[in-house]
Design brief:
Largest sheet: 4 strands, mixed
Radius of gyration: 12 Å
Number of helices: 1
Distance between the termini: 33 Å
Helix content: 10-25%
Order of helices and strands: EHEEE
Length: 78
């Protein structure tokens, strides 16, 4: 498996969406991405913190312009 040359971790936060599925739907349906932009997520669902796996590390992210091929994107939600 080939991984990109990750040099950074970029943290994002959202509170506008109610679930991981909402974020993914927004990225795919509204922004036209092939999948969710973030590589990982930690979100609050039903009063529990849930770890989510998003875009594979073999594909550049879509989370931060100019940094997607060198930074892992992690989103914190809730």
């Amino acid at each position: 498996m080939i991984y990109l040359n990750w040099q950074y971790i970029i943290l994002h936060h959202f509170e506008a969406w109610s679930s991981w599925a909402d974020v993914e739907e927004y990225h795919v349906e509204e922004l036209g991405y092939k999948c969710i932009a973030y590589n990982f997520g930690v979100i609050k669902e039903n009063d529990k913190l849930i770890y989510k796996i998003g875009r594979p590390l073999t594909i550049a992210g879509g989370h931060t312009k100019g940094m997607n091929d060198k930074a892992i994107g992690i989103v914190l939600g809730g």
